[in-house]
Amino acid sequence: MPAPSAEIFIFIEITLIKFNKSLFYIAFTALCLAGCTVPQYNYTPEVVEKAGPALNESMQAEVGDTLLETAFLVEFEALVFPEETSIGPVTNFRFTKGHLVKRGDDDTSEFFGKSNLPGASKISMNPLSNYFSAIQLMKDDSKLCAVTVNGGRFCRDDVTYERARVAAAAENTFWQRLLLTGIDEDKLELEYQSWTGIAGQAPDARIGFTVPREKCECVDLRGARIEFSEIRESSATYRVTRNFSKPVLGESGQ
Length: 254
Fold this sequence. Notes:
By secondary structure, the protein is mainly beta. The chain is 12% helix and 46% strand. It has one helix and 18 strands. A hairpin with a 5-residue loop joins strand 4 and strand 5 (93-95). It is elongated, with a radius of gyration of 29 Å.
């Protein structure tokens, strides 16, 4: 009987490798179904409005003054370590003082991940550890767990942490402003400005509006409402009853 060819041995070896891989994936899937932690990424940061003047407050404005200015910025829920913290049996993961931003949650826990914002916690790990994925905060007992990329986790119930809110980078703030640019006998002249950046930056957009005096009692513009109660030669008395509409902002600065 002729000896088996090399091709047959190669075929058998490849078949065994594929079989062993299949067993591994089946075992890994079963393990994950039994206990792997899967971080959630369903969190949407909040668009926060910072506006002035206060609503319904009587204000005086000269020609050239700002009637209303609003900043819209993205704020994240955050988990803050007030001091260096280690999680894992042999300090698998070490977190410097700083914050992690919320990424999602499910029925039993919240998940926080790396942040690129100022004051973020820096993460280092034991060379033998799997890569870091997220921090899991249990809702029922406030236990903290460091979750690895393959779904494993290391938990502690004595970690000191705080809850906070952190804002996206200042250069990603969206600004809107309305100015009183002129007063004539029969009309008011207004200018709407908007830009993305820091306070006082030159506007990206400028749009002029003319409002007849008979319609100045209630002016609606870009979602804002301004009511003028008295108009003089070079000044006006007014109040803001509604601020600009909120824009749709992404996770700027992250």
